[in-house]
Amino acid sequence: MLFMRYALAATALSTPLVALAADTANTNKLEEILVTGDPMSRSSLDTVSSISIVPEDQLRALNIRDLYDLLLRSPNLNAAREDKFSVRGIANEGIGPGGTGRPTVSIFIDGARQPGRGVANSWDVQQIEFYRGPQSTAFGPGSLAGAVVVQTRDPSHEEYSGDIKVGASNYGGREAGIAVGGPLVGGLAFRYAAETNQTDGEVTNTTLNDDEWQARKRYMQRLKLSWDANEWYSAMLTIQDSKLREGNEYLPPETAEDGISTDDVDGFYDDNSQLWVLSQHAELSDELRLSLIASHSENYNQRKGDYDISDDNNGYFINTVNTENDSVEVRLQYQTAVVKAVAGLYYNSDELVGTSSSIDLPYNVSGMQLRADADLAADRDATTQAIYSEADIILSTRWTLTLGARYEENEAKNRSAFIVTGAELIDPVTGTTIPGDISPVLKPILDNDTSAPSGDDVLLPKVAVSFQINDELSAFFTRSQGYRAGSVDFVSSGNSPSYGPEYTNNYDLGVKFQRGSWFVQGTVFRIDYDDMQIGVRVDASNFRTDNAGEAKSEGAELEFRGELGKGFSVFGGIGYVDTAFVEYEDDGVNYAGNHFPNAPRNTANLSLRYANDKGFYSDISWSRTDGSFIDRENTPTLLADARDLFGARIGYQGDHFGAEIYGQNLTDKFYITDRFNSPSLGINAVYVGDPKEIGARITYKF
């Protein structure tokens, strides 16, 4: 009954928009956009799931610089931080800390799986696609909650073109970018893009007297080479390198709104990412196309931070993670007037090496007060092999049946370790350390280094039915299954306990309306979890992962875009999600009925654009996100804030030169996006959203 109420609500919301579209329909026809991440190569109008496709002009209208900006302004998507976000209430990191498991949302850039932070900026990007809901059948490991596909601009074989931009904003913001490309020789073409954007930030560290405490610097370079010398074979090579340098994001709750940090440790966050993708396509016949896609990505990130975020000396940490990902996919596509199908083989190798070093951290061991240095390490060497197939079968002029399945095998070698590297006793009278390393005494008690394998296999079916109601209105129903492999926890009670995979059953019911320049899409959904993985921090050096009994996520989303006439256009969306643990008890506490962390119930966005034939344009935008809990206990005092964010842009774009001024968070709304509260570590910190930004940029196109 609740599911039906969502369906009726979505229909009621879409009715006024459909009527408006009917009244304002003009000769501008809606362009069918190719969904680049879909192995079936469907158009946006033929997909049988909820997908947001954000083209380049919409990215510019919203002044989107990276994935984080866009996650703040899309229905049923929410970003707590740049590398912590949720889709339909399901966090990309999973629920809670712990374990060495894969993420729940995969990010692809030009076909390469990319784990890094700050890698998905919007410069020279053709479109970004958000796949809501489990995508395990199409995208494989790490896609239980969804997928993000970034398609950058391809080289042109016909003409040379380029873009240049420079800009500046408050808080010492500055940006510059260049993109240029065109034909070379012998069917070869290139596209080169580079960008940097930087800010000094608005936070001052009063302990270290640093007024650029949260300075951020981004760098990106990308080269694409395309070869298309004959009618049957083409290839594309993509190479990208990105770097992020950033100060520590979390702040004391009592001084966060004033932009004051009190850390006594000079912290930072560094992230380096590289990717290589080679895509090859052979047109075997009018019906058959063979593709080979090989990718390699590397990511190195390191974070240094103060444990107690104060001027007291209570230790600090250095977290380092190295990841490498290699994948090869062979894909055969077949298309006739009745059947459109794809079948593929997939192999993926995923390596992770991580350490968390604690320095001068106070410990209590068997009544002894001491300061210790220790390393918590986690290594994972995982492989995935899969075979998959999907087909659209045209049953009649109105009905299409979609059948799909994926068989996947996952294996991993896991290592976890806790190693004491140094320790000194604390004098209980003076509070100072007593010279002399006592780590040889502690190592037999605390040290632990174990390895354990993990692995499982799964068959994931998918079935969908779409119905063309009339020339302008269609509907679809999809049932699919999601999956995330099991793994092994870091360190717990001297061993490496394993935890099992988690599964979802997913139902999407959607409608799509198209008329003239208008497109409206509404979807209601339900996701039922079995054996949901929930991470729990036991203490400073121990984690564990539970397999909860049952959980669910259900709701609806509505998106629309179209021309209003007289130069005006609009796009926006509404999202609603209700999450809950259905069956989950831990240490005598029943969490049934509690909501997932970082799962705001309501999200919405709306943008109005004006452009005339003389080159002048303006945009205004609004986005809304409800508050949300940050822990499984749903502690009322530990909430991420609700926020309404407003932006605007006004400018001129001629044949070559352009100029604009813009504003983000125009009301200078202070809001907390996430909290880090850990009594075992003595940390109580908050993450806050970006303040008001006013800036200007100049562009040149050729």
Automatic annotation (TrEMBL):
A Pfam family this chain is assigned to: Plug
Protein name according to UniProt: TonB-dependent receptor
UniProt cross-references to PROSITE patterns, sorted A to Z: TONB_DEPENDENT_REC_3
Domain named TonB-dependent receptor-like beta-barrel: residues: 260-666
Family in the record: Belongs to the TonB-dependent receptor family.
Sections of the chain in a coiled coil: none
Bilayer topology: Multi-pass membrane protein
Species: Zhongshania marina
Endpoints of the signal sequence: 1-21
Cell location: Cell outer membrane
Keywords, ordered alphabetically: Cell outer membrane, Ion transport, Iron, Iron transport, Membrane, Receptor, Signal, TonB box, Transmembrane, Transmembrane beta strand, Transport
Domain TonB-dependent receptor plug span(s) in chain numbering: 45-147
SUPFAM superfamilies: Porins (SSF56935)
